[in-house]
Specification:
429 residues, alpha/beta, Aminopeptidase, Alpha-Beta Plaits, 2 domains, 6-stranded mixed β-sheet, 10 helices, 16 strands, elongated
Amino acid sequence: MIAQDQLIAAISARRNDLIALTQDLIRIPTLNPPGADYRQICEYLDRRLLHAGFETELIRAIGAPGDSDQYPRWNIVARREGTRPGDCVHFNSHIDVVEIGHGWTTDPFGGEVKDGKIYGRGACDMKGGLAASIIAAEAFIETCPDYAGAIEISGTADEESGGFGGVAYLAERGYFDPARVQHVIIPEPLNKDRICLGHRGVWWAELETKGEIAHGSMPFLGDCAVRHMGAVVAEMEHRLFPALAARRTDMPVVPDGARQSTLNINSIHGGEPEQDAAYTGLPSPCVPDRCRMVIDRRFLIEEDIDDVEAEFRAVLKRVGDARENFDYDLRELHRVLPSMTERDAPIVTTVARAIEATLGHAPDYVVSPGTYDQKHIDRIGRLKNCIAYGPGILDLAHKPDEYVGIDDMMQSAQVMALSLAELLLRAEP
């Protein structure tokens, strides 16, 4: 097997290339929603990976949620075969980024380099990880051309909105079948010395309380849907939130506050629609006959999804028992079961050894508070040997002045390259 120092030297020689590649990716504003410039970034990756000897496919997720002629959901899958049979190692990164938001002091799509960091929307989450995986693969291929198996790199759509136009679509078509791919690394920003084994579960739902419209000066002639929703929130505060806070998981979820069950109220909208900013008049005096609330319930591997739903329905029953004319509709929006790879899985132990060789200490093992595309690789692809590992600080994701450290990317690329060496150089020709 080739010496580790040769592989690390090959990574080190690509530092400027890594910076430029990350900047190029940041400068393609792949905002989701709506799903902009997916084709542009896939074509950029296509040119890059073809030059490195990969065979590539550009795949549109036709008919997936969000896909349209104006905003098609494009993905790229690139594969480079080795010289003899062996396992396939797949690096999967999402290409979409969230909205810019307010509070930036740098150009969100400028890719500015300052104090050893590259700034921009998606720098941390997760274009820095995508760039690191490409550099790692290219350095490994150049240094170790006689490898077994195959290396795959994918850039996939819509992770920030559920991944249905990306990894889910590909998994349904066999791209993550265990007969085709044996090891998956998702370079999400969980810190360079952490291995993320999986994530909590999620249940999203929309509740609509119903009332009766009437003149605002005579509210007794109507029925206020907002007050009904207020009673639901009060019941949640009184019983549901304390019950969730009392539950703790054995999953190593970070940060510590996420080791309990949680529920977030994403939004509440009741009464008249918000008027256009140019409107200068007063609202009309009406009793609101509709109020909608979207909830985001994150649950633990020890909880059952059916119990999660039943618990919320019990909240509504208690409210209904205490209030006259309480009427509502509850609609599930999204459900994801928790996922957690075993700590003795091959990809976990391999990356752990590579982290120790690179950083000089053993990794931490964590679970993400939110979901990411491992859910589709696990549930649809039936591939359990999957982790998230990549450069960047999770707390910076979706924040203003998002950045990724250049040294962190370099060291993560070394870890990825050493992992490739262990997995693909085992069998001698």
